[in-house]
Design a protein that fits this description.
This protein is about 5% helix and about 40% strand. The chain has about 210 residues and is mainly beta.
Length: about 210
Amino acid sequence: MSGSSLTLPKESALPLRRTDRRQHARVKVVLLGRYMLRNMQEYPCQSIDFSPGGVALVAPVRGEIGERVVCYFEHIGRVEGTIARHTERGFALSIAATARKRDKLASQLTWLANRHELGLPEDRRHERITPVHKAVVLKLDEGIELPATLIDVSISGAGIALDKRPGIGAGLLVGSTPAKVVRHFQNGIAVEFLLQISPDKFDENIVL
């Protein structure tokens, strides 16, 4: 990930308590994210279950047992720790955090685990922002270009205002970001990105 948010910590900066791994209740939450290994390479990942003390990940590259890792998850943010064990689909991370950080993480996980019961619509499962740069050009598969205005953006899609609405299912580029139309609404469309935006690039200054 770009920027300073995912620099690897110094070895002495994150004391690990190895007894933490199973003393926290785990909840099954699926969150997309990215992680950085010791080799400074970044990879996409997805959580299987999560607790304030650890997280199991679906991950393409496992790293070494004991290796320090920095992750960034949607809704949760930055998480640091060490690889505790390998799994069939990735690895389990033992989270290194202060008591205050663990309390915050516990609150976030409680909300995420109960979000369906709170009545949150599925298409609002990702945080949405209003970008600074709202003007955008939609490029349809057949070569047509349409000027449009971004209403809001999440890591998985966007709401777009425009006069001529492409059909549902139509493929297009939102700026340079591949997407497809998933819904119509009055004076606009909702699109889903074919590849979700990396969380570290997701802020109000985003340019699609």
